[in-house]
Here is the input.
Amino acid sequence: MEEKTNDQQLLDKSYENVRMGSYAIDCLIEKIENPKLEELLRKQNKFYLDGVTALENLADKFNHELKDINFMQKGMSFMAIKMKTMMNNDTPKFAEMLIQGTTMGITDTTKALSEYPTNDAELKAIVERIIQHEEEFVDSLKTFL
Here is the structure.
């Protein structure tokens, strides 16, 4: 098996981040009762889905096939979200869960950018935009705590 390039590794990590973020929002959105939080989540999900498309288009450039988040990750996330929201489904709890998940995404993607440096300006710009947007999302979520 061929070893992945830094660009391919960075693509994989960034793709996993935006896919996982979108999946988590999909699991939560039906439970949100606060219209402002729901609107924020819909905007964030659109950003994630736009990121998915941008990374998929860029993967062709690197002759790389991106893989969706695996079944186990999805299952574990789904169960964790369901368990946490079963006990407490108020707006501050949702905001806290989203801040924690998004912070994990920021950390993982920032770490990937450091571990897999790229000379590709387009890839770097997409990844940096994902990180910046997630940081802004966390700041927006803080108002719901």
